Amino acid sequence: MACDLGVLVSGRGSNLEAILDSVQEGRLKDVRVSVVISSAAGVRALEIARKFGVETEVFDVGSLKQSRLEYDRLLIESLRKHGITSSTGLVVLAGFDRILTAEFVREFSGRLMNIHPALLPAFRGLHAQKQALDYGVKVSGCTVHFVVPEVDSGPIIVQKAVEVKEDDDEESLSDRILREEHQLLPKAIQLFVSGELRIDGRKVVVG
Ligand code: GRF
User: What is the Cα–Cα distance from 28 to 87, expressed in whole angstroms?
Assistant: First the structure.
Protein backbone atom coordinates (compact mmCIF):
# COMPACT_ATOMS: atom_id res chain seq x y z
CA MET A 1 0.00 0.00 0.00
CA ALA A 2 1.25 3.47 -0.87
CA CYS A 3 2.53 5.70 1.92
CA ASP A 4 0.51 8.92 2.27
CA LEU A 5 2.61 12.05 2.07
CA GLY A 6 1.67 15.49 3.29
CA VAL A 7 3.93 18.19 1.85
CA LEU A 8 4.09 21.57 3.59
CA VAL A 9 5.10 24.52 1.41
CA SER A 10 5.18 28.30 1.41
CA GLY A 11 6.34 29.50 -1.98
CA ARG A 12 8.08 28.42 -5.15
CA GLY A 13 7.54 24.68 -4.75
CA SER A 14 10.42 23.35 -6.83
CA ASN A 15 11.11 20.58 -4.29
CA LEU A 16 7.43 19.67 -4.31
CA GLU A 17 7.64 19.49 -8.11
CA ALA A 18 10.68 17.21 -7.88
CA ILE A 19 8.73 14.87 -5.58
CA LEU A 20 5.67 14.83 -7.84
CA ASP A 21 7.79 14.29 -10.98
CA SER A 22 9.60 11.43 -9.27
CA VAL A 23 6.31 9.78 -8.30
CA GLN A 24 4.82 10.29 -11.76
CA GLU A 25 7.88 8.89 -13.50
CA GLY A 26 8.02 5.89 -11.17
CA ARG A 27 11.39 6.81 -9.64
CA LEU A 28 9.71 7.25 -6.27
CA LYS A 29 7.64 4.18 -5.53
CA ASP A 30 4.85 3.33 -3.10
CA VAL A 31 4.14 6.98 -2.41
CA ARG A 32 0.99 9.01 -2.83
CA VAL A 33 1.11 12.75 -2.23
CA SER A 34 -2.23 13.07 -0.46
CA VAL A 35 -2.19 16.75 0.36
CA VAL A 36 -0.14 19.87 -0.15
CA ILE A 37 -0.60 22.43 2.60
CA SER A 38 0.55 25.98 2.08
CA SER A 39 1.13 28.72 4.63
CA ALA A 40 0.45 31.32 1.94
CA ALA A 41 -2.21 31.81 -0.73
CA GLY A 42 -1.44 32.28 -4.41
CA VAL A 43 2.00 30.70 -4.41
CA ARG A 44 3.52 28.66 -7.26
CA ALA A 45 3.65 25.52 -5.10
CA LEU A 46 -0.16 25.45 -5.09
CA GLU A 47 -0.29 25.68 -8.89
CA ILE A 48 2.12 22.77 -9.12
CA ALA A 49 0.02 20.67 -6.76
CA ARG A 50 -3.12 21.38 -8.77
CA LYS A 51 -1.35 20.59 -12.04
CA PHE A 52 -0.59 17.14 -10.64
CA GLY A 53 -4.15 16.77 -9.33
CA VAL A 54 -3.13 16.82 -5.68
CA GLU A 55 -5.52 18.18 -3.06
CA THR A 56 -4.45 21.46 -1.52
CA GLU A 57 -5.19 23.30 1.68
CA VAL A 58 -4.20 26.88 2.44
CA PHE A 59 -3.74 28.12 5.96
CA ASP A 60 -2.72 31.65 5.17
CA VAL A 61 -0.55 32.95 7.97
CA GLY A 62 -1.24 36.53 6.86
CA SER A 63 -5.01 36.32 7.28
CA LEU A 64 -5.39 33.76 10.06
CA LYS A 65 -4.95 35.25 13.46
CA GLN A 66 -4.39 32.05 15.41
CA SER A 67 -1.69 31.43 17.96
CA ARG A 68 1.16 29.20 16.77
CA LEU A 69 -0.35 26.29 18.66
CA GLU A 70 -3.82 26.78 17.22
CA TYR A 71 -2.30 27.07 13.76
CA ASP A 72 -0.33 23.87 14.14
CA ARG A 73 -3.44 22.07 15.40
CA LEU A 74 -5.16 23.03 12.15
CA LEU A 75 -2.26 21.48 10.28
CA ILE A 76 -2.45 18.29 12.35
CA GLU A 77 -6.17 18.02 11.73
CA SER A 78 -5.76 18.52 7.99
CA LEU A 79 -2.96 15.97 7.77
CA ARG A 80 -5.03 13.42 9.71
CA LYS A 81 -7.91 13.96 7.32
CA HIS A 82 -5.59 12.96 4.51
CA GLY A 83 -4.34 9.81 6.18
CA ILE A 84 -1.20 11.16 7.84
CA THR A 85 -1.15 10.48 11.58
CA SER A 86 1.33 9.83 14.35
CA SER A 87 1.54 6.21 13.16
CA THR A 88 1.07 6.36 9.37
CA GLY A 89 2.37 8.44 6.51
CA LEU A 90 5.06 11.07 6.28
CA VAL A 91 5.16 14.86 6.53
CA VAL A 92 7.70 16.62 4.33
CA LEU A 93 8.68 20.25 4.83
CA ALA A 94 9.62 21.50 1.37
CA GLY A 95 10.32 25.20 1.74
CA PHE A 96 7.83 25.65 4.59
CA ASP A 97 8.79 28.95 6.16
CA ARG A 98 7.25 28.55 9.62
CA ILE A 99 8.83 27.15 12.71
CA LEU A 100 6.59 24.39 14.03
CA THR A 101 5.61 24.03 17.67
CA ALA A 102 7.00 21.24 19.82
CA GLU A 103 3.48 19.78 19.91
CA PHE A 104 3.41 19.40 16.12
CA VAL A 105 6.94 18.00 16.03
CA ARG A 106 6.10 15.47 18.77
CA GLU A 107 2.93 14.41 16.97
CA PHE A 108 4.88 13.41 13.87
CA SER A 109 8.10 12.41 15.59
CA GLY A 110 10.10 10.19 13.25
CA ARG A 111 7.68 10.94 10.38
CA LEU A 112 8.63 14.55 9.74
CA MET A 113 11.49 15.56 7.47
CA ASN A 114 12.93 18.83 6.21
CA ILE A 115 15.33 19.86 3.49
CA HIS A 116 17.91 22.52 4.26
CA PRO A 117 20.25 24.20 1.73
CA ALA A 118 23.53 23.71 3.62
CA LEU A 119 25.58 20.91 5.11
CA LEU A 120 24.19 20.85 8.64
CA PRO A 121 25.16 21.51 11.36
CA ALA A 122 26.77 24.43 9.48
CA PHE A 123 24.58 27.40 8.55
CA ARG A 124 21.29 26.69 10.22
CA GLY A 125 18.36 29.04 9.74
CA LEU A 126 17.57 31.50 6.99
CA HIS A 127 19.77 32.40 4.00
CA ALA A 128 22.01 29.39 4.51
CA GLN A 129 23.61 29.81 1.08
CA LYS A 130 24.56 33.43 1.85
CA GLN A 131 25.86 32.39 5.26
CA ALA A 132 28.09 29.81 3.53
CA LEU A 133 29.38 32.36 1.01
CA ASP A 134 30.03 34.99 3.68
CA TYR A 135 31.91 32.46 5.77
CA GLY A 136 34.09 31.55 2.80
CA VAL A 137 33.59 27.79 2.78
CA LYS A 138 34.77 25.92 -0.32
CA VAL A 139 32.09 23.26 -0.07
CA SER A 140 28.47 23.57 0.94
CA GLY A 141 25.46 21.47 -0.04
CA CYS A 142 22.12 20.26 1.22
CA THR A 143 20.76 18.10 4.00
CA VAL A 144 17.57 16.15 4.59
CA HIS A 145 16.95 15.54 8.28
CA PHE A 146 14.24 14.46 10.66
CA VAL A 147 12.73 17.42 12.47
CA VAL A 148 13.12 18.05 16.19
CA PRO A 149 11.88 21.13 18.04
CA GLU A 150 15.25 22.93 17.70
CA VAL A 151 15.51 24.43 14.21
CA ASP A 152 17.64 22.50 11.65
CA SER A 153 19.02 20.23 14.34
CA GLY A 154 17.43 16.80 13.90
CA PRO A 155 19.06 13.49 12.96
CA ILE A 156 20.55 13.67 9.46
CA ILE A 157 19.17 11.29 6.83
CA VAL A 158 21.19 12.20 3.71
CA GLN A 159 23.50 14.98 2.58
CA LYS A 160 25.05 16.05 -0.70
CA ALA A 161 28.11 18.27 -1.03
CA VAL A 162 28.29 21.04 -3.63
CA GLU A 163 31.41 22.95 -4.61
CA VAL A 164 31.50 26.69 -3.91
CA LYS A 165 33.15 28.50 -6.84
CA GLU A 166 35.28 31.66 -6.63
CA ASP A 167 32.80 33.71 -8.62
CA ASP A 168 29.62 32.41 -6.95
CA ASP A 169 27.01 34.81 -5.70
CA GLU A 170 24.02 33.84 -3.58
CA GLU A 171 21.92 33.10 -6.65
CA SER A 172 24.41 30.92 -8.49
CA LEU A 173 25.27 28.90 -5.39
CA SER A 174 21.58 28.54 -4.47
CA ASP A 175 20.82 27.26 -7.99
CA ARG A 176 23.61 24.68 -7.89
CA ILE A 177 22.49 23.48 -4.44
CA LEU A 178 18.83 23.41 -5.50
CA ARG A 179 19.56 21.05 -8.39
CA GLU A 180 20.98 18.61 -5.84
CA GLU A 181 18.04 19.16 -3.45
CA HIS A 182 15.75 17.92 -6.20
CA GLN A 183 17.59 14.58 -6.23
CA LEU A 184 18.18 14.33 -2.51
CA LEU A 185 14.67 14.86 -1.15
CA PRO A 186 12.99 12.12 -3.25
CA LYS A 187 15.87 9.84 -2.30
CA ALA A 188 15.29 10.44 1.42
CA ILE A 189 11.56 9.87 1.01
CA GLN A 190 12.19 6.60 -0.82
CA LEU A 191 14.48 5.40 1.98
CA PHE A 192 11.79 6.22 4.55
CA VAL A 193 8.99 4.57 2.60
CA SER A 194 11.09 1.47 1.98
CA GLY A 195 11.60 1.12 5.74
CA GLU A 196 15.33 1.67 5.47
CA LEU A 197 15.68 4.41 8.08
CA ARG A 198 16.12 3.76 11.77
CA ILE A 199 16.66 6.60 14.23
CA ASP A 200 19.23 5.73 16.86
CA GLY A 201 19.67 8.75 19.14
CA ARG A 202 21.30 11.50 17.07
CA LYS A 203 22.00 9.14 14.19
CA VAL A 204 19.94 7.78 11.37
CA VAL A 205 20.98 4.27 10.44
CA VAL A 206 20.34 3.66 6.74
CA GLY A 207 19.74 0.19 5.32
C1 GRF B 1 14.89 25.22 -0.63
O2 GRF B 1 16.14 25.80 -0.86
C3 GRF B 1 14.90 24.42 0.64
O4 GRF B 1 16.13 23.82 0.92
C5 GRF B 1 14.60 25.46 1.69
O6 GRF B 1 13.65 26.30 1.08
C7 GRF B 1 13.82 26.27 -0.33
C8 GRF B 1 12.49 25.91 -0.92
O9 GRF B 1 12.48 25.98 -2.32
N10 GRF B 1 14.13 24.85 2.92
P11 GRF B 1 11.25 25.41 -3.13
O12 GRF B 1 10.00 26.12 -2.59
O13 GRF B 1 11.18 23.92 -2.93
O14 GRF B 1 11.52 25.79 -4.56
Answer: 21
